[in-house]
Amino acid sequence: MQLVELLRVLVRHEVEFVVVGGVAAVINGAPVTTFDLDILHRRTPENVHRLVAALTELDATFRTDSRKIRPTESHLSGPGHALLVTKLGVLDSLGTIETNTTYEDVLDDTFVTNIDGLPIRALELARLIRVKEQAGRAKDIAVLPVLRATLVERKGS
Amino acid sequence: MDDRRDPRPTEAQVNEDGVDLTLIRWSLSLSPLERLRVLEGHMEFAAKVQQARRDAAR
User: Within an 8 Å CB–CB cutoff, is residue B18 touching chain A?
Assistant: First the structure.
């Protein structure tokens, strides 16, 4: 998985997105691991067009379908999750998170950080904790103690 | 301050949930890029282990 290079392709295509999930936790300083990159993409027609261009460069296909179907603008314009595999690793491109929460909805709970010269927008740790609390899945609950402890350590430093 | 001294062994520093706070402090000392590079290393290691298990099963 070449996370930084994957992010570089998205930024080069000027895709508007927020890094969420485990990679957002790592960017925030939490010592957790994950095996995919989750992004919440903006669903305007212009941005979805740019996202499809980036995904084409990345040779993205749906990993949930053995026919190796490529994501289209139609697939990415809705609220659902596109679970993809690319030549640089596994990528989940989410139309919404939580209960129909969009890119625009979370912007106030994000920050932009410089990663190898790339301006990367990621979900704030406190919001990420709320997202995982709401998701309530075993894998989300398991990581919550580390995320909460990281938040406490950051406030104390 | 003599920085040639060996670091002393210390008590484990964990919170009430058993979370290793030294690991968090170390992670917070890294830049976001360094954190992602560490994660990439974990992913690469896991992929190699999975491949080795597949190879062994053949």
Answer: yes
